[in-house]
Structures are given as structure tokens and as C-alpha cells.
Automatic annotation (TrEMBL):
Residues 8-61 form the HTH cro/C1-type domain. It holds the Pfam family HTH_3. The lineage of its organism: Bacteria, Bacillati, Bacillota, Bacilli, Lactobacillales. This is Helix-turn-helix family protein. GO terms for molecular function: DNA binding. InterPro entries: Cro/C1-type_HTH, HTH-type_regulator_Rgg, Lambda_DNA-bd_dom_sf, TPR-like_helical_dom_sf, TPR_rpt.
Length: 297
């Protein structure tokens, strides 16, 4: 890949724009500095904004013809994949991957990493093929950008490896990757909303891991951390599932009242988002424990 950061810096200077002035409306001054010095890989969202401000096409940065319309279509497809997976609709996500995206379309490292990650995620959750998922999560991690900087897909792939090894019953390996993803998540800095939302999902998946291990207090703490991330972003991404998981673990800790309240919130959000997976999970717990929402009013 070409030296994208250096090209951006040269073109900015050519337009006689200071870094702070140029960064306005795109990202922070620090982020732009990291991009220009190849210390940070720009997301496609930021890259498009940079090109707009420089009044150039993407192909001018990459030094080869790039179909801008194809880039927009790929971006829209990956946004849709994120939404589908966030609502536990992994079957639909897998079909979208198979029918709408071909590997030869993946014209940037950014798109390649997204593709391998979502392929791995749908393979482990929809197809229940953890070995194939492990292969594609590893491809995500092994596909490096020019600056060898970490992307959100790298952190998600580590988390995905935790899910895959859980499916295989290899809990020590699962624990290793869940903790590693959490460690990397806490260090990862981004101003891109779609990437920030994924941090909530990483905490959620790790909380579920501890819930499965019956370490309910750890699970509650991680649920609260994930909720804090998403509420601060004003995002409903994974929110119904988080409230359900929080309710479940609070119940296991003996807090029936707050558990019921969180089940109520989870069901309301799942109804709004048409998340049948969460609706079914809540109804199962309500039936099992004879919880009636009338008691909350």
C-alpha cells in the first residue's frame, strides 16, 4: 500500500492549511497527526472526509483507479453487517456476505479486515463452525496495514477468538482471548462512532463469558461498563442484549427487583428493534422465574 499518511500531509501543506484547521470537522488534531505520520490507519469514514476536504478522489491517494461508487456500496454493506450482527441476525449477515460482497472487491486493507472479521463472526454464531471462524479471525489479525497499526477489527477478532474457543469448549484459550481483547479495547482510541460502539460489544461478549462461568459479579461490572459506553454514545447498539444479560446476572446474585427492571428495559428495547433473539430470551426467563412486570409499576 502507498504511503497514505505522507500523501495526505503533502496535499494539506500544498493547500496551505494548518493541521488544526484541516482536522476541523474530520477528526481531532492528534488523530490527524497520527494518520499523517502513519501511526494510525484511517477508517474509510475519515478517509472519505479527508479526500473531500482535499478535493481529490480516493484513487489519487492510492495511486491506482478506485471505483468510488463501489467504495460507497462496500461501506454501506459493512454498515448493514454491523447492524445485523448487533441485532443477532447473523444468518442474514452471512447471506449478505455471500451474495453482496466478493473478495476481489476488497480494494483496501480496511475492507479486507472487515470482511474476514464478519465472515468469522457469522461462521461461529450462525454456522457454528468455530474452526473456520478461527481461521478467518486469524486472517483479520494477519492482514496488516502499511503502518502496522491496530484497527478495531483486530480487537474484535481477538474477542471473536474468545467466542470460537468457547464453542470448542476450550475455556482456558477463550479466557485468554477475551481478556486480551478487553486489554486492547481499553487502549484503543478512536473518534469513529461505528468503532466506538464496537467497544460496548467487546465488553458485552466478555461479560457473557464470565456469566457462563458463573462469575456473576464480574459479568455485572462488564455489563455496566458496556452500558456506560453505549449510553454516552446515545446508541442502542446491542443495548437490549446488554440489559438482558445484566438482568440475568443480577438475578443470579439474588437481586430480583433490579433484575426484573432490567428485563423490562431489555424487552421494550428488543420490541422496538425487532430483536426476536432477545425477546425470546427475556420471555424464557420471565416464565421460568414467574416474573410479572405489573409488580414494577
Amino acid at each position: 500500500m502507498e504511503n497514505i499518511g505522507g500523501k495526505i500531509k503533502a496535499l494539506r501543506i500544498q493547500k496551505e492549511m494548518r493541521q488544526k484547521e484541516f482536522a476541523k470537522g474530520i477528526c481531532s488534531n492528534v488523530t490527524l497527526s497520527n494518520i499523517e505520520n502513519n501511526k494510525q490507519n484511517p477508517s474509510m469514514e475519515i478517509l472519505i472526509k479527508i479526500c473531500d476536504k482535499l478535493e481529490i478522489a480516493l484513487q489519487d491517494l492510492y495511486g491506482e483507479p478506485i471505483d468510488t461508487e463501489e467504495v460507497k456500496n462496500l461501506t454501506a454493506n459493512f454498515d448493514q453487517l454491523q447492524w445485523l450482527c448487533g441485532n443477532h441476525r447473523h444468518r442474514e449477515a452471512y447471506i449478505l456476505l455471500m451474495e453482496e460482497i466478493a473478495e476481489e472487491q476488497l480494494i483496501t486493507i480496511c475492507f479486507q479486515k472487515k470482511y474476514y472479521y464478519f465472515l468469522g463472526l457469522t461462521q461461529v454464531i450462525h454456522l457454528e463452525k468455530p474452526d473456520e471462524a478461527i481461521f478467518n479471525f486469524s486472517r483479520t489479525l494477519n492482514t496488516e496495514n502499511e503502518a502496522k497499526t491496530e484497527t478495531i477489527e483486530d480487537v474484535l477478532a481477538l474477542n471473536g477468538l474468545g467466542i470460537a474457543y468457547t464453542f470448542k469448549g476450550e475455556m482456558d484459550k477463550a479466557e485468554f482471548y477475551f481478556m486480551k481483547s478487553l486489554e486492547h479495547m481499553k487502549k484503543f482510541e478512536t473518534e469513529v462512532l461505528s468503532e466506538q460502539k464496537e467497544m460496548g460489544k467487546i465488553a458485552f461478549n466478555t461479560a457473557k463469558h464470565y456469566s457462563d462461568k458463573k462469575e456473576y459479579k464480574k459479568a455485572v461490572d462488564l455489563c455496566l461498563e458496556a452500558l456506560s459506553i453505549l449510553i454516552n454514545l446515545d446508541s442502542r447498539y446491542h443495548l437490549s442484549a446488554l440489559y438482558f444479560l445484566l438482568g440475568y446476572n443480577l438475578f443470579e446474585l439474588g437481586d430480583r427487583v433490579n433484575s426484573s427492571k432490567n428485563y423490562f428495559i431489555a424487552k421494550a428495547l428488543a420490541y422496538v428493534d425487532n430483536n426476536q433473539h432477545v425477546l425470546d430470551a427475556v420471555d424464557e426467563e420471565l416464565e421460568k422465574h414467574k416474573i410479572v412486570f405489573d409488580a414494577l409499576i
